[in-house]
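ESCALATION

Customer reports they have been waiting on this structure for their group meeting. Please prioritize. Original submission:
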Amino acid sequence: MGSFKENVKETFLGLSESAQERWIDFTQFLQETWPVLVLLLALIVGIGIYADPPPPRHVMIATGTTGGSSEILGKRYAEFFAKKGITLELVPTNGAQENINRLSDRKDPLQAAFVQAGVVHTKDVTGIHSLGVIAYDPIWFFYRGPELNPKDFQGIDGRFKYFLGKKISIGNEGSGTHAHAMKLLKVSGYEPGPNFVNLPNDQAVIALKQGEIDGVFIVDTHYSSNVQALLNDPQVKLGTFGRAEAYTKLIPYLSILEVPEGAFDLKRNFPNTDLKLLATTTNLLIDDRMHPAIQFLFLQAASEINGKATFFAKRGEFPSFKNTMLPESPVAIHYENNNYPFLVTMLSYLPFWLAELVNHIVFIVLPFLIISYPLLQALPGFRTRRMQNKINRIYSDLKSFEQELLINFDLGKLNEYLRKLDLLEYRALNIKVSKRLAGEYYSLRTSIDYVRNCLNRGVQPYQIDETSVALAGQVLTKMDQPG
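Update from on-call: job pushed to the front of the queue and completed.
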């Protein structure tokens, strides 16, 4: 029994020899099967590019009118995307209707938009998916003039006749503000008066503050610059909805938001009583052809930006996948059912391009390898058959050569015969075989040596005279006779 040092040395020597044999076998395997491997690689790359091309580096999103919350929200989304190496271009529009029209246009490069629920009829809309609801958009009615007692006035919905002769802005046509204002007036039994005007929200705010109009409808978030400008103006009053519950029954997509007394400004006790505001919601809509990785990026941005607690929303309330105005994207459904999708989890730790690469490997390459496993399993058999065929071809050539010697042996061509054998042996020496076929390989070389030795010993093995042939024929004839 050897010493410990010798045992360790022998062990490492054995491992080294084994590793070398494995490496030689692997390189030989690559040399012989590279056409199949190249075909597999091309197939994987082709399937990857066709099934899931790389995500774009530039995305366009509609943010609606100037000064609204969608513009502020869009800037926060753009900052989030920039950290991931993606440019999110903000596109101002005239409102929700234009956003829907542009998303539906298959030639328009716009890929996403913030759209308020209930602003358009969506039954005939195609090519658009929803990534969920991301925020509340209260329906505000601000007015100038004497304070209207809610108990006597019963809210703006109860006795709106007071304002029918006033100059009221109901938002520019095609905007969410205009759509909701018209719907609330219609369900309350009122028609816009002749003095009603269609001003964009930012212009309506200026007009109300300067006394050019008497009231304004605005559908926007609490933190928007337009809403904040009016909430902070002591000269401007806020109307309420006295029958809010009834409206939510008649218009299902509306919600009720509670505003306690003094919640907007404790110092001036604004509002001076508890209020109920009606609110719609903002949907994040996308072109249904948007790359899944970009969709996951939007969902992660929505969770990080819109998932925080706000004046009206609780932490984690958004994004929500209830009451979406259009069918949910399959990516959103996956996100909803799996709180931490693989790509979104990776995006928290890896750069976007690297996370997308890992996602490709996990969800495209690995399944393909699993499917192609039987083919990969067949590669060793394919390799063995190739080696066996090379050996068999040389055996066949050797047999043909020997038959030629038996039939047409010419002593003067001895050197030519030996050169043919040398060529066969050279071909055999250039065959790289695995250990499994080593026996057949050396048997082939032995057979070549046997024929060479026969030729080197003399001509007897291949020079058969006519008498011997005749005697052999007589023997075979007697063997064929019965008895």
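Sent to customer with the following note: The beta strands are 58-64, 87-92, 112-116, 128-143, 168-169, 215-219, 237-238, 255-259, 275-287.
Escalation resolved.
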